[in-house]
Write a structure and sequence with these properties.
alpha/beta, transferase, nucleotidyltransferase, 16 helices, 5-stranded parallel β-sheet, elongated, DNA-directed DNA polymerase activity, about 55% helix, binds zinc ion
């Protein structure tokens, strides 16, 4: 992410960085919170670059001086990044960081550390960090990143300046994908599936995603015909295509957007729909579902998504969902 992108996507963050540096009021600890894909880590790196940049003429980091380049490549001796070791950030990692920070800064007068997924700190790690935050050194800056603010110890939150990253508007991601030449039918869905422009672009370029879209439509068409046919789609196509939780989650999202489309058609808001090529099928089936039924179906899909995390057998999960999506249906 460039400084320009930060200014466009998270203007309040760019402004906070500029003001704190201009006024010499850089806090000891920041907590960047917001959804995946909102650019928290990129913003933390831009902040670090701005603090260490050797060119002090502009508000944005130059990106070309030796400090900017070393931060970009993760080689600056006074800028440290802590990431989870496996599933958690361990006490030892925080202790190492503390040890590192008791030494004076190697080259600059400051030291900065970034803790990615700070919510994944073990209790012991969090307590170590807390002690560290309680004895702030004027020369130390901490930036904690999290997608789950509620999972951070309140005592840690209270010692940080909390900066919230806003979700990017779907339209903005969609417009970006269209500019890159992504076909509308894929761009519109990819922009809804993820809030990360880069991820959305990669998804739209992946044949797997286009195929996923087809299977979702196939399932919907089968659901409108016979229960058995829908089961066949699950067994023959769905389960072999969506093979892990992440893929299943995308598949269920795609199905959710399809039912949302149906609701749009029912409400006479056809310009909102994502599955343009299914418009005729939607128009036909609008007489078969009530708004309430569609809402129930969407709820069932969301419940299935939540069940992904309970390690339920995927086949059972999908078969139960198909049953729920057939409930109250006017078909036999
Ligand atoms: Zn620079």
């Amino acid at each position: 992410m460039s400084w320009k992108m930060l200014e466009t996507n998270q203007p309040h963050v760019a402004k906070m960085i500029v003001n704190s540096i201009r006024k010499g009021r850089v806090a000891h600890a920041y907590l960047f919170e917001g959804q995946k894909g909102t650019g928290k880590k990129e913003a933390a790196l831009l902040f670090a670059k701005r603090l260490f940049c050797l060119t002090n003429v502009h508000d944005d980091p130059c990106e070309t001086c030796v400090n900017c380049r070393r931060i970009q490549s993760g080689n600056h001796p006074d800028v440290h990044l802590v990431v989870p070791d496996g599933n958690s950030i361990k006490k030892q990692q925080i202790e190492q960081l503390q040890e590192e920070f008791t030494k004076t800064a190697v080259e600059s007068s400051r030291k900065l550390y970034i803790i990615e997924h700070a919510d994944q700190m073990t209790v012991q790690a969090a307590n170590s960090l807390l002690k560290f935050l309680e004895e702030p050194s004027a020369k130390t800056v901490a930036i904690l990143l999290t997608e789950q603010l509620h999972r951070i110890l309140p005592t840690i939150v209270s010692r940080c300046q909390v900066i919230s990253f806003r979700k990017l508007p779907t339209e903005q991601i969609y417009a970006h994908l269209q500019k890159q030449g992504v076909p509308r039918e894929l761009a519109i869905l990819a922009a809804r599936v993820t809030n990360n422009v880069q991820e959305a672009f990669q998804l739209s370029q992946d044949d797997w995603f286009a195929q996923a879209r087809k299977i979702v439509i196939q399932l919907y068409e089968a659901l409108n015909k016979q229960y058995v046919q829908a089961l066949l789609v699950i067994q023959q196509h769905w389960l072999s295509h969506f093979t892990n939780k992440e893929q299943m989650s995308i598949g269920l999202d795609l199905l959710l957007y399809l039912y949302k489309d149906l609701l749009y058609v029912l409400l006479g808001e056809e310009q909102q729909i994502a599955y343009d090529d299914c418009i005729n099928e939607f128009r036909r089936s609008r007489f078969l579902y009530s708004e309430k039924q569609i809402a129930q179906h969407m709820k069932a899909i969301l419940q299935a998504k939540a069940r992904l995390h309970t390690n339920m057998n995927p086949q059972l999960l999908m078969e139960q969902l198909v049953l729920q999506l057939r409930e109250g249906s006017a078909f036999v």
